[in-house]
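Blinded run. Sample ID left blank on purpose so nobody reads anything into the name before looking at the predicted structure. Input follows.
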Amino acid sequence: MNETQTSTPAWKPILPQLDDDPLTRLLMTFALFMAAAFVVFIPAWIIDTRVLDSAPIWTKPQKFNLSFVVHFITLAMIAQQIPRVVRSGMALRIFAYLAGIGLVFEFIYLNTQAARGVRSHFNNDGPFEQIMYAFMGLGAVLLMTIAVAIAVQVWRKADRSRRGLWLGTILGCIGAFITTVIFGFYMSGEGRFVGAPLTGGGEVIPFFGWSREYGDLRPAHFVSMHMLQTIPFVGWLADRQNWNGTMIVIAATIVQIALAAFLFMQALSGQPFWPA
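Blinded prediction complete.
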């Protein structure tokens, strides 16, 4: 046997290889910043024993830190489908900078309110809180708009031979944006609970903080928001297994939207996501 003979590895990388371009660097910088913030605030999470709305005071900021890590890593990964020249252009970077502005605002306000021992979300106790809560809604839109911008460029420029990932990215990003905005704005006006005071109280699901005693709109919001991760993943998996990516992605999108709608109607009826 010729010792110089080489063979092509049979394995494929599990995760996309991230390029070193301006957009990817921005998105990964945001993700790494939030990961570092999660680690930095662990001592406060452990030491500070204050409780707000039946949950440790620092649980909400830590939930958002982790959520932002997942959010920006996902965006960086799905953006790799877009040609490098487009990722290096100014258009997507503008949307990334706007998302960064929303991120910094939400991060500062969430942690400031936690330090003060008061709510950041669903807080209209005074003029300051009302104004800041409105800005939080704007920040949330900015954080999701970058996903729509990436979806548009994937639709226009990406390789469509990987049909599952291509369609999963488009439907996941657009679906997450639309449903998250709908559920988010409904909660901003009506509150997170149905048939309960704003503070809720009672038994909750650990870490998530969802009520086990009252109708809680946040599970529907959670399921809809994370279409950004699940639907592209389903498409990627379908491509990897040589399944019919188009049919599987469409079916998965319908199922997840239906699940979010079911949880929303369940909460409106006053039923908890996971009864105590």
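Unblinding after everyone has recorded impressions. The radius of gyration is 21 Å.
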